[in-house]
What does this fold into?
Amino acid sequence: MGASATGYGVVGIGNAIVDVVARADDAFLAAHGIAKGAMTLIDPERAETLYAAMGPAIEISGGSAANTLAAYASLVGSAGPKGAFIGKVRDDQLGAVFAHDIRAAGVAFATPPATEGPATARCLILVTPDAQRSMNTYLGACVNLDAGDIDEAVVAAAAVTYLEGYLFDPPAAQAAFRKAARVAHAAGREVALTLSDPFCVARHRDAFRALVREEVDILFANEAEILSLYEVDRFADALAAVRAETRIACLTRSEKGSVIVADGAVVEIAAEPTVVVDTTGAGDAYAAGFLAGHVRGLGLARSGRLGALAAAEAISHVGARPQRPLAALAAERLGAPA
It folds into this structure.
């Protein structure tokens, strides 16, 4: 499904977070009681303590869906169709940093900041030498996003509305997702969902399953997430289950590449060769690549290859955002439209 001439290609709805990314060793993680390779929610006091102890860091607007939209913008370039983001920040310094960064990346962002309540969210990410990332997240203002923050005109103008599973915890956010899906489908548009994390799935399995069955056209998940969603041990069983519940499913399997199922077709995409430095944002970038191809009608295989290429670039350096223009990289490697 392509975007209209005056619309958006993708609008993402998710957590508006400022990422703080630093290198660390296992001893640092142990000394500070950090669960390696996991995403742990922390309170404001813990956030201040860890931030003070971290080494030199990269600070940039983040959050899963926001990272996807930044990579999407890098892929489609000035040729469009443009991406947009809906997420909640506070009217504080980090809120201003988030808004500036995502707009500078080429993504439309117009959600009004909160004038009271928790501060803008931040994610403290420690990257160990084995490329594992351990995330410590203070969610702050972003979890207060509700149905009133959904810009219906933006959603109706986007070919795909992309929902971030990490935002699924608060009931108000679930209501916002449902509203966005209704608006998108009423406008003849598509709805995509990323499951984000197997622990998110375990907490809300029934609600996720209902959303996938009733509202989702395109599902993104890694192997652990899809196994958790359907409570099975074998990937083949999860594949069979998801084929019965959504139109398109893009399932990533790290170095094994990815599998895309749609309308009876099964397309296997090889992983792009790369040196793994930091796995942060690999799934976000894959979704960006697939969606950049999908909204331009490039087909499952070509869109999947764009996803694999974007993911490979994301894990080749520290930080989730692309460090070279993805449109040029795609044109060089795949001959994809810039």
In short: DSSP finds 13 helices and 14 strands in the chain.
